[in-house]
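Students often ask why we bother encoding 3D structure as a string. The short answer is that it lets us treat folding as translation between two languages. Here is a chain of 285 residues written in the first language.
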Amino acid sequence: MMVEWIDRKQLKADVKTLLADAQVSPKAMTALYLALLLVISLVDEWAGGGQAVTDRNLLGIFVYVLAALLNAILSAGFVLYCMAVRRGERAEYLTLFDGFSFVGKIIGLEIVTAIFVSLWSMLFVIPGIIASYRYRFALYNLYENPGIGVMEALAMSKRQTVGYKGQLFTLDLSYLGWSLLASVPAILQIGLLYQVVFQSLYSGFTDPAMLLQEVESALLLPPWGRLVISGLWSLAVSLFYVPNYQCVELGYFETAKRTSGVGEDAASQQDPWSSGMGPDGLGGL
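And here it is in the second language, the structure alphabet:
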């Protein structure tokens, strides 16, 4: 197969132009998507209170499973929206729920992928990271062609990512600053948590109940309050990079399909990026 070097900066610029011309606002769609995820997280927090699944009651377990299903559906819907934008098609807000029709396969694929990555991670950290990039396009293959099986989607991704894992890793690094900025509240909470724990242990606190009370007192807000603040901050920051990142990664996917010859039949023949050309005939890939 032929491996193509992707001009990441040019692709980002082309995607920026593409998103500006989208018929349905990318920021509005992203805001709706992330707001729904935040609501789901709040409901899950209310039902489970941060408990492990095995420690929850029946209601808590039901809400946990339902939350996982809805998260998978919304994630699929957002990617389908970005795929439509890249094709110059109009995707309405209800596209977020298009994953309902094949949610079983989506969940199955995520479970199998997690198992495979975990098995590779048992050897060492690096094989696990490589495995995560090997199966990076599996969900995209399933989104484009829901009729294929879970193992087929994984096999396609394995062949598509040959020669592109390093480029995908570099792509992720280029958005690391945005990811860290979106995680600032969570990072501050973790830092404060460790500070309180170390100070409490140093002061002689050995009672778990007293330690937990000290931690909760230092964090000031209840779990749901911290979740709201973190979620709203992440939502505000994500509006500026998530749509771009998703469409850029789909650009890598299109290039991998074209150069490997794997999955081309499943993709739309009208995708203007499948020939390596960006909007207005620019060589975005």
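Translate back mentally: The chain has a mean pLDDT of 84. Keep this in mind for the problem set.
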